[in-house]
Design brief:
The complex is a heterodimer of chains A (213) and B (207).
Chain A: E1 4-11, E2 14-18, H1 22-33, E3 38-43, H2 50-55, E4 63-66, E5 69-72, H3 74-84, H4 103-112, H5 120-138, H6 149-169, H7 178-189, H8 191-196, H9 200-211
Parallel strand pairs in A: 1-3
Antiparallel strand pairs in A: 1-2, 1-4, 4-5
Chain B: E1 4-8, H1 13-24, E2 30-33, H2 41-46, E3 55-58, E4 61-64, H3 66-76, H4 87-103, H5 109-124, H6 137-141, H7 143-156, H8 167-178, H9 189-206
Parallel strand pairs in B: 1-2
Antiparallel strand pairs in B: 1-3, 3-4
Classes of the chains: A alpha+beta (213), B alpha+beta (207).
Chain lengths: 213, 207
């Protein structure tokens, strides 16, 4: 059976190592969880290969080769994988598809904020509390007993949140959000996550120019 | 038997304008979903100038630009008219279609609210739809407001079209969504929300 090929971002300054793109990690997590064999092409963003730009002039990652066609956009890619490899199912029930969806934008806003009284910290805490409460009621994963696509989309972003806010602001998620902490431990300890995560220094290097802009 | 094809993209309000017009006219057509990051040869062949959707292909001949397509549909298939017959009223309908084309891109909240106020008072007034009691091309042109606006508001976290400030527009939105032909041809709200939130996340990670 043909092995799926996937293009993902390489680490900046270390083109032979997996990079920090959370959307790439989401696709890799999906492939790992479904035990689909795949081959990665690490794309060096400072020197994108000619063949890559020919099929993908905008140079976007992640990119998956499916049926001889290259597909971009992690939403589309994950959808195709789910359709063609339905077992184990990662398909989320529609009512939880937006759980945690405001965490990433509020994390970015807080990370970039230079004004401690602009309310961005509280806005992030509100979103984290909402997730914590959801997990308390419906956990351990967002859809209950089993991991699903929403968890795989959130996991890389929560990793970025933890690493970036820890490094740049010395900030951690309050211990009182115990269900959140359990959830993160559960996600990060999965073999698929360990295999596909970027090293912390690359996550930090990725956010550095945006924080100090 | 004539052949109608529509090249569209599901999250696009421009694409939906044509779907709505074709449905209101009771026309059968083949819908072809375009992947905008990987445009088909068909799209590039039928809209070589702009390479954008929607494109209508009628018996092998193509028309591009949604407002132009709407006028073509209205002229070619006169049943269930979507423009008033009176030439002055038709002109007013076209005035508002042009208004929504030119003014859609307001970035500042205050300016956007002012534009909405103009539409609320001068465009819609006390009418059910823009040209009276029946739905028409102007409503179709404003259709993005009925469906996309609140999804964008939720994605961005800023509410512009409050019900208290714009009671007539809100009533119009309700009438639009409940229209017997249109109500089964609206994009899924959850899917749209997920789509726009995803696009927003990508942008945030990049900039």
């Amino acid at each position: 059976m043909a092995v799926l090929e996937v293009c993902v971002k390489a680490a900046a300054g270390a083109p032979e190592i997996l990079g920090d793109c959370p959307f790439c990690q989401r696709v890799l997590l999906t492939l790992e969880e479904k035990k689909i064999p795949y081959k990665t092409h690490l794309i060096n963003f400072s020197d994108k290969p000619q063949w890559f730009l020919e099929v993908n002039p905008e140079g976007k990652v992640p990119m998956l080769k499916f049926d001889e066609k290259w597909i971009t956009d992690s939403d589309v890619i994950v959808g195709i994988i789910e359709e063609k490899y339905p077992n184990p199912s990662l398909s989320p029930p529609p009512e939880i598809s937006s759980v945690g969806s405001k965490i990433f934008p509020s994390f970015v806003k807080f990370l970039k904020s230079k004004d401690p009284s602009d309310g961005s910290e509280q806005a992030l805490l509100n979103e984290l509390k909402a997730l914590d409460e959801h997990l308390k009621a419906k956990g351990p994963y967002v859809a209950g007993e089993n991991i699903c696509a929403v968890d795989l989309s959130l996991a890389p972003k929560l990793y970025h949140l933890e690493v970036a806010l820890g490094h740049f602001k010395g900030w951690t998620v309050p211990e009182s959000l115990s269900y959140f902490h359990d959830y993160v431990k559960l996600l990060f300890s999965r073999e698929s996550f360990q295999k596909t995560k970027a090293a912390k220094e690359h996550v930090i290097a990725g956010w550095e120019p945006k924080v100090n802009a | 038997m004539e052949e109608i094809k529509l090249l569209g993209a599901w999250p696009s309000p421009y694409s939906y304008r044509i779907i709505w017009a074709l449905k209101l006219k009771g026309l059968n057509y083949e819908y072809i979903e375009e992947d905008l990051s990987n445009k088909s040869d068909m799209l590039l062949q039928h809209n070589p100038v702009h390479k954008k959707i929607p494109v209508l292909i009628h018996d092998g001949r193509s028309i591009a630009e949604s407002t132009v397509i709407l006028e073509y549909i209205e002229e070619t298939w006169p049943q269930n008219p979507l423009l008033p017959s009176d030439s002055h009223e038709k002109a007013i309908a076209r005035f508002w279609m042009k208004f929504v084309e030119d003014k859609e891109q307001e970035k500042a909240v205050e300016e956007a609210k002012q534009q909405l106020k103009i539409v609320e008072e001068h465009g819609l007034g006390d009418k059910k739809f823009f040209c009276g009691n029946n739905i028409g091309l102007t409503d179709i042109a404003f259709g993005w407001m009925a469906v996309w606006n609140d999804v964008i508001e939720e994605t961005v976290g800023v509410k512009i079209m409050e019900a208290n400030d714009f009671p007539r527009l809100h009533a119009w939105v309700k009438n639009f969504k409940e229209h017997p032909v249109l109500k089964d041809n609206l994009p899924d709200r959850n899917e749209m929300l997920a789509y726009y939130m995803h696009k927003r996340d990508i942008l945030l990670a990049r900039t």
